[in-house]
Amino acid sequence: AAMKYVFGGFLVCDTPETAKQVTFHPNVRVRSVTKDGDLYDPAGTITGGSAPKGGNLLMRLQEVSDLEKRVYAARKEWEQAQAQLQKMQAM
Residue 51 — left, alpha, or beta (φ > 0 → left; ψ -120 to 50 → alpha)? Predict the structure, then answer.
């Protein structure tokens, strides 16, 4: 019920090609929207979404998340190396 409330009668598609196929297929004919905001309607209308100036926001957020994970892993590795160095210096 929650998904129906959020998306209504729309099918969310990864690509414009997929959206066109499901929207205009004679056995499917359902309204669809791409992740970029393009709307496809079986009545024949296509409404374009606008791409943000900074690129795809979700992709950029994923990149930031991946980089944060890499920084965390590198910091842990550095801390372990520092601890080993201190042990060796104490000998």
Answer: beta
Which phi and psi (to 5°) does residue 13 adopt? -120, 150
Give the pLDDT score at 2.
Answer: 53
* Backbone region of residue 11 per phi and psi (left: phi > 0; alpha: psi in -120 to 50; beta: other values): beta
Query: Using CB atoms within 10 A of its CB, is residue 35 exposed (0-12), middle (13-18) or buried (19+)?
Result: middle
Tokens of 47: 């409404």
At 38-85, the pLDDT tens digits run 888 888 877 776 555 556 777 888 888 999 999 999 999 999 999 999
- Sequence-distant (≥ 6) Cβ neighbours of residue 59 within 8 angstroms: none
Residues in the chain, total: 91
The beta strands (E) that lie in 3-43 are given as 10-13, 31-34, 39-40
